[in-house]
Design brief:
Blueprint (H helix, E strand, L loop, with lengths): L2 E4 L4 H12 L5 E4 H4 L3 H11 L1 H4 L5 H5 L2 H9 L1 H7 L8 E3 L4 E3 L3 H7 L5
């Protein structure tokens, strides 16, 4: 099962969804704003990606945080990311064997070689 997590109005998410559709790769879409994300899934993403790849420091959410909130997020990101899923670098692509953050056609192609 391939799942793509993101938000509908994100350009990178749109590109990733279009790429998957054009490649004929079946996948589930999860809107992080609508459905959120569990702390358990975030911990799996942290293990696979690390905090630096998971926290989107270019997001409006990050820019709106004061220094204290940014420090708290860097120290213990899971509760903050649960509360503010737009702070997650996106899209997040989960395959049975890999987790990727962000969209790159080359990385997707390598990760999904042979996927239907």
């Amino acid at each position: 099962m391939i799942t793509l997590y993101g938000i509908p109005n994100c350009d990178s998410c749109r590109k990733a969804r279009q790429w998957l559709s054009t490649a004929g790769i079946a996948h589930d879409w999860v809107d992080l704003r609508e459905h959120g994300v569990t702390p358990e899934r975030l911990e799996k993403w942290r293990d696979a990606l690390g905090d630096a790849a998971l926290i989107n420091k270019r997001s409006k959410t990050w820019r709106d945080f004061d220094e204290q909130e940014r420090t708290r997020t860097e120290r213990e990101p899971v509760p903050v990311l649960v509360a503010h899923p737009t702070l997650i670098k996106r899209p997040i692509l989960e395959t049975p064997t890999q987790t990727l953050a962000g969209f790159s056609a080359n990385r997707y192609e390598a990760a999904l070689a042979g996927a239907d």
